[in-house]
Amino acid sequence: MQTIIFSGRLTSDCILARSSQGNDILKFTVAVNETWSDKQETTTFYDCMMKDSPVRDHLKKGRFVTIIGSFGVTQSEKDGVTYTHLNVWAYKLDLGSIPRSKPKESAEPVV
């Protein structure tokens, strides 16, 4: 088994789906940003699945998570372009920080 550990932010709320075997699973994507000393940045997207659990209610867009899981690679093609996907079956998920809300602007002037 190939194991991977990574941390990043959810790109959207998780989706509850049903596997071909009839099991409820959660699907979500995690974005991991990496910056090098020359300020070059890259983002890697991990397509994740895990068994349904009460953590579902906390898997919202922007939430920081750490994942431990096994992975595989698949490819798809769209409009003549081949995309490579890293698919992760998460067997451990730790919840991190919740994204901060931006302060709401007041309609009334501050005096």
User: What's the helix-strand series?
Assistant: EEEEEE
Query: What name goes with the CATH superfamily?
Result: Nucleic acid-binding proteins
CATH class: Mainly Beta
Helical fraction: under 10%
CATH architecture annotation: Beta Barrel
What can you tell me about this protein's structure?
The chain is mainly beta. The protein contains no helices and six strands. It has a single domain, classed as Beta Barrel (OB fold (Dihydrolipoamide Acetyltransferase, E2P)), CATH 2.40.50. A hairpin with a 5-residue loop joins strand 3 (24-35) and strand 4.
Please provide a brief summary of the model.
The chain has 111 residues and is mostly beta strands. The chain has strands at residues 3-10, 15-18, 24-35, 41-51, 64-78, 81-95. The protein is built from no helices and 6 strands.
Notable characteristics:
single chain; about 110 residues; mainly beta; OB fold (Dihydrolipoamide Acetyltransferase, E2P); five-stranded mixed barrel
